[in-house]
Amino acid sequence: MKRSFLLLSILLIGFSVGVHAAQINKVAAVVNGQVITMFDLQKTALPELMRAGINPNNPAQTEAMNQMLRKALDMMIMDILIAQEGKRLKVSIAPSDVDKELARMMKERGMTREQFEDQLAKAKISVAEIRANFEKSLLRQKIMGMEVARRVVVTPEEIKKYYEENKNNLFDRKGLHMAVLVYPPNVDARSIAAKIRDGSLSFVEVARKYSIAPNREKGGDMGPVEWDRLNPEWGERLTKMKPGDVTEIFDLQGRKAQVRLFRPDGGSEAKLLTLEEATPVIDSILRQPKAAERFEEYTTQLRKKAVIDIRL
Q1: Which of 16, 55, 99, 167 minimizes the number of CB atoms within 10 Å of its CB?
Q2: H or E segment at 61?
Q3: Strand, helix or coil at 172?
Q4: What residue ranges do the domains of the chain occupy?
Q5: CA–CA gap between residue 118 and residue 120 (Å, rounded)
Q6: What is the pLDDT of residue 15?
Q7: Domain 171-262: which CATH class?
Q8: Strands (E), the chain
Q9: Residues 6 or more apart from 203 whose CB is under 8 A from it?
């Protein structure tokens, strides 16, 4: 791993790739005959390393960097296995599906196509790379639906039990928006959060002044919550909230963050759902962790059947 440490340093300080081609094209892993180079691994891991504030020139952070490289490698291996499984199952993602995801992302960020591409250019990321990432994500979701989700069962008894235990927190969530506030590292986030809590500052004011998340000028408004697309962590967080609620500070990719759930018309009515009305919501809540568990079992089997040679 000392060599990977050196190579990431080369990438970060911007030396010419061509000069070091023999080194950075060293193989990190081979998955059923498909090669992952050190260059590809470092490029994939770089955004997370930067978000975590890891300096590859700091020996004290070597272990943390190596752990993140290994995590990125695990994800790359799984992407390859999923892609190979897609070919076996004759499953593919249409370009129009990727177009829809791109349009959704631009809408959430309040960007035109030109603004979006300009932002990518500044980050030295191509549209093709973003499209490839969306294709991987959509393929994973599709295969998960075919091979995993259909095997997940949520019974009426489980739904009724959950309703009885949580009916005082099951509100009508139609039309609710989510706003995200991500604090920069140079502010006292806890002091500001206390002012939001006591009402001396509004969430919208703070987001507009401090947030480094998208849509800060809109108070961090990310648009309507797509409840069926939330991962388990976000689903658990948001389903416990009422309109107007703001979370306590939590960690979001190495930054302090808060989330607000609200109705754009300013309404704060929290109508409780009947069992019948709540059934689809509860089904989704209970289904997600079960699906995640089944997916873990499924991917473990894929790994067991694969020939994986890790050379880090």
Answers
A1: 16
A2: none
A3: coil
A4: 1-86, 91-147, 171-262
A5: 5
A6: 31
A7: alpha beta
A8: 27-31, 34-37, 177-182, 221-224, 250-252, 255-262, 308-310
A9: 179, 181, 196, 219, 220, 246, 258, 260
* Cβ–Cβ < 8 Å for 253, 51: yes
Cα separations (Å) of 215 from 58, 106, 131?
Answer: 34, 11, 22
8 Å CB contact between 31 and 77: yes
**Six-digit token string for 263:** 């109705």
Three-state SS string over 255-267 comes to EEEEEEEECCCCC
Amino acid at 261: L
Cross-strand bridge partners of residue 257: 182, 250
Tell me the pLDDT tens digit for each residue of 141-197. Answer: 888 888 887 789 999 999 999 999 988 888 888 888 999 999 998 899 999 999 999
Instruction: For residues 229 and 51, give the distance between their C-alpha atoms in angstroms, rounded to a whole number.
Output: 24
Q: 244 by DSSP, 3-state: which?
A: coil
| Cβ proximity of 273 and 144 under 8 Å | no
Angstrom distances, CA of residue 139 to CA of 44, 167, 198: 18, 36, 45
Model confidence, pTM = 0.64
Q: Cα–Cα distance between 62 and 1 in angstroms, integer?
A: 9
Whether 6 has a pLDDT exceeding 60, the answer reads no
Tokens found for residue 304:
């067991």
Q: How far apart are CA 17 and CA 209, in angstroms?
A: 39
